[in-house]
Amino acid sequence: MTTKLSVGGLFAGIGGIELGFKKAGFDISWANEVDKNASITYRINHKHKLFEKDLRELQTKEVEKVDIITGGFPCQAFSVAGNRKGFEDKRGNVFFEILRFLDDIKPKVIFLENVKNLKNHDHGKTFEVISDELTNRGYHIKYKVLNSAEYANVPQNRERIYIIGFKDKKIYEKFDFPKPKKLTKTIKDLIDNTADEKFYYNKSKYYEKLKNEMINKDTIYQWRRVYVRENKSKLCPTLTANMGTGGHNVPLIIDSKDIRKLTPRECARFQGYDDNFILSEQLANSALYKQIGNSVTVPVIQAIAKQIKKAFDV
Length: 314
Ligand SMILES: C[S@@+](CC[C@H](N)C(=O)[O-])C[C@H]1O[C@@H](n2cnc3c(N)ncnc32)[C@H](O)[C@@H]1O
What we know:
The structure is a single chain. This protein is of the alpha/beta class. The protein has helices spanning about 15-25, 35-45, 90-95, 95-105, 125-135, 150, 170-175, 185-190, 205-215, 265-270, 285-295, 300-310; strands at about 5-10, 25-35, 50, 70, 110-115, 140-145, 160-165, 220-225, 225-230, 250-255, 260. It binds S-adenosylmethionine. S-adenosylmethionine binds next to α1 and β2.
């Protein structure tokens, strides 16, 4: 096939899914995101049209028809870390907005990403609803939980579920999830030798406690409000949206100088973003941490998108 398949991105955040598809050779047509700060990052890094508004207010006639619709829809409602209300939660309900786009635009493919727990949430009922809604619209579905550390040569332990629906049964049958990739990159490869003073913890009231407990230079620790947890697997723990606020889930390391938290740039690397992805100085670090934690591991998306492309190629 010579013409590129086009993509429209819902819940685009900073555009990790769109970037992965672009790198795999797709043409990104437009995206939607409501958050002002995420939209700032989005606009500096992507050239296509961004509709910056609540998806509930975006009319399908405003956007161009596309071959693929993507969406890493808000996961707080489904995550074990969240309140687990699922579809009762307003944020969970935005899933139904995706269906409106499927009904009106009728893309060939729907690509969804979410937390691993989506599958088991509410004894599997949530996933059943999602699966039924897609199947009833004529989509044939494949899904899989992939860990970034196993599929992207990125040393982050991040398990996410990827759900892909194909209108065409033959293409669905041809599609396979990517094969695991050897992990050669280490934490050290992604860490800078030193960082700006503000990232160091030497003035923190927890400094002495951290110094006693953080002894291993090859790993990343995670601050859990009152204690520090060592990550034994030599992988960066799952980066979360709240890692930059309230002292929770903050990823900590010992660099050549002292104890500090990872910088937003380092976090971006653990999500597989190249250093040419711009993190605006206009934004507070807390906003950047949130955006990166909310995002995806770009090479995982790229690998899946490549497989989708292969399924379409004759
Ligand atoms: C899990 S994040 C997706 C991040 C994205 N995949 C990325 O790579 O950055 C979910 C995003 O959905 C956005 N969102 C939540 N509710 C929305 C709504 N009603 N309309 C538009 N965007 C919404 C949030 O602001 C957030 O950026």
